[in-house]
Amino acid sequence: MRNETFECLHCGNRVLPHTQGSARNHCPYCLYSLHLDEDIPGDRASLCHGMMKPIDFTYKKKKGDMILHECQKCGKTILNKVAPDDDFIGFVRRKNEG
């Protein structure tokens, strides 16, 4: 699993790696991701590489707040754990406003 700095292809922000032991898989500013994983988080086995749009959120008892991403290329949906520095509150507000 790679945990490195990247430039978000959606909003253009420079995204720093996580410092808390896990690999970052989405932008903390716009919450977009790339469709890199296929079957399990971190497998990087997807051949799609489409943009993953944050479309919804949920709460899982064992994992906490989760973002539902949908691939804009193939339509696959994937749940991702919210990171401590994500603009999750802003996303929830925008989602609830319509």
Descriptive account of the structure:
This protein is mostly beta strands and 98 residues long. It has one domain (6-97). It is 10% helix and 30% strand. It is built from one helix and six strands. The chain has one helix at 88-97, and strands at residues 6-7, 14-15, 33-34, 51-60, 64-71, 77-81. The strands form two sheets. A four-stranded antiparallel β-sheet has the order 3-4-5-6, with no helix packed on it. β1 and β2 (14-15) form a beta hairpin. The chain is globular.
Note the gap between the termini: 35 Å
Q: What are the low-pLDDT stretches, counting only 5+ consecutive residues below 50?
A: none
- Read across the widest sheet, the strand sequence of neighbours is 3-4-5-6
- What is Rg? 13 Å
Please report which band the strand proportion falls in: under 5%, 5-15%, 15-25%, 25-35%, 35-45% or over 45%.
25-35%
Please count the beta strands (DSSP E, at least 2 residues each): 6
Structural class: mainly beta
Number of helices: 1
Order of helices and strands: EEEEEEH
Helix content: 10-25%
Shape descriptor reads globular
Largest sheet: 4 strands, antiparallel
Mean pLDDT value? 89
What count of structural domains? Answer: 1
